[in-house]
Amino acid sequence: MKKILTSKYSLLIFLVLLSVINIIQGYTTELIADEAYYWVYSNYMDWGYFDHPPMVAVWISISKFFFSSGELSVRFFSSITLSITFFWVWLLIKHPNKQKYVWLYILLVLSTSLFNVYGFITVPDTPLMFFYSLFLLGYQKYLDQKNFLSYLILAVAMAGMLYSKYHAVLIILFVLLSNLKVLKDWKIWFTTLVTIILFFPHLYWQFSNDFPSIKYHLYERSSRRYHFYFTAYHFLNLMVIIGFTFPIIYKALYKRLHIKDKFETALRFLAVGFAVFFFISSFKNQVQAQWIVPMSIPLVVIPFYYLINHVKDLKLFKKLALATLIVTFGIRICMANDGILPKQFEMHGNKKWVEKIENELGDITPLFLNSYQNTSLYWFYSGKRPIQINTWNSRKNQYDLYEYNKNFELEEFSIVTFSRTGYATDSITKKNRSRLFIEHNTNGYKKVGNLKFEIKNPILKAEAKNSVTVSYDKQLLNKFDGTLALSVILKLGSSREIIEADLNDNQITFELPLLDATPTHIQIVGTPNPKIWPVRLSTMEKCSFIE
């Protein structure tokens, strides 16, 4: 073992072995819901998607080239690229004796818990970390040489990051803030222009689809009320992404704050920048652990330099890293094998519940209500494309953009939902105690996705019959043959009120009852089937209110 660790091929052996392990893990572990959702992306390749840019779909499409079905059709390429990412991070380290400490580098990357997950699951962070490490290589080369290759790497890497995840903007920003003198280099401006040109197809896609990603990330997903646990979870995430070694890792970061090297300064700006930015964000939204994963690369490279020269901390680090590896290994075994733990992981039991629904429904089309996750998992494991709709009070998703899902008519279908309704006819166990409820329906459902109402200058009067002027396509409305029941949604601070409404020519009329708060916004919703909650038929518009 000692000969292997000190061999000049030790890192190569490790990276190959890591890819093999991740391929095996990817094959033996069922998909998580988000992976199935991104697999759906890859079925309709485009320059953009509702939640994310398209690179995750590219990653999955490459995997599909090697495996036509099964979990490796989603994960194979990720298993390879994580090892490449780790190799590029190794190249960032310029210590003259680093070859003697390959074992330390291996311990550092393996003990960054969440980073390692991206070797056997495929999410937008997977290509982001790949291009992020390439970007840092390009920036380091730029600081050393400023040659054509460095500018080319920077342009390709920045475009790749932006096509992977919008967090790339923060990575570029924090590196820029660490060295504002780069703005004096006209070639950097030209490199930025090349990046924008490479990224332009996605920008045009956003424009063509009315900027769905921007609206969702900046406005629609915001929490209405702050909770202290938002911020508490952020500090927990700062520990979780590192594992048990976090006291030593953050100590190393603190101890090297005085280092003047420009590249290491950029790494510090990245680590501290992500921690501070999402600390501030936690006062608006709950911060997810993967949002701060870009901290991982700086928190591998900087501690490497520190631990080589601090024997006492190195000894403690090795003990904590070993504990992290044992726990991580145990968790990965449990992920690959359902039933070891009493509580199921997210990736467990999906094949079983999909099979149960298939047996229950037969040839009847399932209509999944308010769950793009269940819709995607059903599609992946059954091979049958279902329908998905979002009621007015649920979040939008990529299915709202697919033409087949925007315009359809079903004579017979079965609603599949998390919530028990008075119409539910059956149910199945999904995971542990959670259930999916099924409602067989023969009344039919028609959706005309191009039918949109535009609200014009809404003025509401308290405790009176209100009439709001609207415009819409009457030919599209006629397709519902009078079956479309309309309502209005009033936003009252953090709550919503739904009120039945009538449409008379270009006027929506409704009785405004006595309300606990003042309405600030209004939205039109509707349903062609009284057993299904209404869907959005207009955007949420500001309104004036007269007492």
List the helices and strands and how they pair.
Layout (H helix, E strand, L loop, with lengths): L1 H5 L3 H19 L4 H11 L11 H12 L5 H21 L9 H10 L1 H5 L7 H20 L3 H17 L3 H11 L7 H23 L3 H9 L7 H13 L5 H10 L6 H20 L16 H11 L2 H26 L13 H12 L3 E5 L2 H11 L4 E3 L13 H4 E4 L2 E5 L8 E6 L2 E8 L3 E4 L5 E3 L2 E3 L3 E7 L2 H5 L6 E8 L2 E10 L2 E5 L9 E7 L7 E2 L4 E2 L1 E3 L1
Please, could you describe this protein's structure?
The radius of gyration is 26 Å and the shape is globular. The strands form 4 sheets. Strands 8, 10, 11, 12, 13, 14, 15 and 16 form an 8-stranded antiparallel sheet that branches. Strands 2-1-4-6-5 form a 5-stranded mixed sheet, with helices on one face. 39% of the residues are buried. The protein has helices at residues 2-6, 10-28, 33-43, 55-66, 72-92, 102-111, 113-117, 125-144, 148-164, 168-178, 186-208, 212-220, 228-240, 246-255, 262-281, 298-308, 311-336, 350-361, 372-382, 403-406, 474-478, and strands spanning 365-369, 387-389, 407-410, 413-417, 426-431, 434-441, 445-448, 454-456, 459-461, 465-471, 485-492, 495-504, 507-511, 521-527, 535-536, 541-542, 544-546. The protein has 21 helices and 17 strands. It has 547 residues and is of the alpha+beta class. The mean pLDDT is 91. It starts with a helix and ends with a strand.
